[in-house]
Amino acid sequence: MRTRVAVIGGGQNGEHDVSLASAASVAAALDPATYDAVPLTVGRDGTWRDRGLRPIGLSGAAQVLRSCDVVFPVVHGPRGEDGALAALCELAGLPYVGSGVRPGAIAMDKWATKLVANALGIATAPGVLVTAATAGTLRWTHPVVVKPVAAGSSLGVALVDRPDRLGPALDAALALDDRVLVEDVVAGREIDVAVLRRADGTLLAAPALEIVADGLFDHESKYGGHADFRVPADVDEVAAKALEDAARAVYDALGCCGVARIDFFLTEDGPVLNEVNTVPGMTEHSQVPRMFAAAGWSYPDLLDELVRGAHR
To answer: Which of 81, 190, 192, 263 is catalytic?
Structure first.
C-alpha cells in the first residue's frame, strides 16, 4: 500500500507563489510507486483548498489530513515556516516532515537566531533591533542592510548606502513586520550550507553553494533568474570545515529536523551567520536540492529521505 503524503503549499504571506512552486514540485516528484501525494493549498486569504482547488475550510482540510500518513508542509515564511503548521500537526497527532514548533519559530526570528549563534561563538553582523516606536531616533552613519525580523525570501530587505534612503527602507520593512533589523554590511562571499537529519537520526551536510549576485541578493535577484548558484562552492578545506561546523552547530542548537539551509557570509575572519531557513525552497532547481544533487542525491531520493524521517 502506498504512503499517503499531504503536501501543503501556499500560505498567507509574500512567499505564497514561491511556496506553490515548491509544493507542486514536491508533489510531482514523490515516487508514485511508493507515495500518493495529496495536495492541499492555503490561500492568500487563509482559505484551505483541496487538490481541485475547491474551498474546503480548515475542518475539511483536517479530514484530508487525517486520511494521510504523513504531512509535508512546504509553506515558506510566516504562518507556515515559523512553526504554525508544525503546531497544527502536533495538536492533531500527525507525523510531519521538517522542524518542530520551537526551531521553526526561533529560526524565523532573525534576531533570536543571532542570539543563539552568538551564544555558540558564531559571528553575526553587528546590528540593532528597531520598532515603529524607535525608528525615528535611528540615524544613518554608515551603509547598513535593513530587513524585517520575520519575513522570508528577502522581502523588505534593502541596502541603505545614503542617509535619505534609511527612512523609506525602514517604512518598507515595518510594513511587513513590527520589528526590523538594521545590520552592518558584511564584506564576504554568500555561502549556503544545507544540513539534513536523516531518518536514522544522523546529520548530513551537503556540499556548500555560493551565490554570485550583482549587488544585494534581494527578492528580485533570488527569483528573477539573475543569481548565479555555484555548487560545490570553490572554498578551501579550512573554510569548508568552518562553514560545515558552524552550520551543524546552529542546526543542532535550534533543534532542527528534516532539512534546513543555513546562510553565511564567508569573510577573511571566517563564517558570519546570516539566517536559517527551516522550510527552504524545494523545487528541483532550488538551492537545497542542488546542493544534495552535488552529493549524488537525486531529487526524489532527497524527498524520500525527508518523508521517512518525519516526526512520529
So the answer is: 263
Give the structural domain span for 213: 105-124+186-308
What cell was used for 118? 552568538
State yes or no: is 17 an active-site residue: no
- Mark whether 87 and 192 lie in a shared domain: no
96 is an active site residue? no
- Radius of gyration for the chain, computed over Cα atoms and rounded to the nearest angstrom: 19
Query: Are residue 217 and residue 292 in the same domain, yes or no?
Result: yes
Q: Could you tell me if 230 and 209 are in contact, meaning their C-beta atoms sit under 8 angstroms apart?
A: yes
Residue 296 annotated to the active site: no
Q: Find the catalytic residue in 15, 82, 177, 190.
A: 15
| Annotated catalytic residue 263 | yes
pLDDT in tens, 79-97: 999 999 999 999 999 999 9
Query: In the annotation, is 298 catalytic?
Result: no
Residue 163: which CATH number?
A: 3.30.1490.20
| pTM of the entire predicted model | 0.92
249 shares a domain with 118? yes
How deeply is 79 buried, as exposed, middle or buried, from its count of CB atoms within 10 A (0-12, 13-18, 19+)?
middle
Could you report the per-residue pLDDT of 33-74, keeping only the tens digit for each? 999 999 999 999 999 999 989 999 999 999 999 999 999 999
Give the CATH number for residue 241: 3.30.470.20
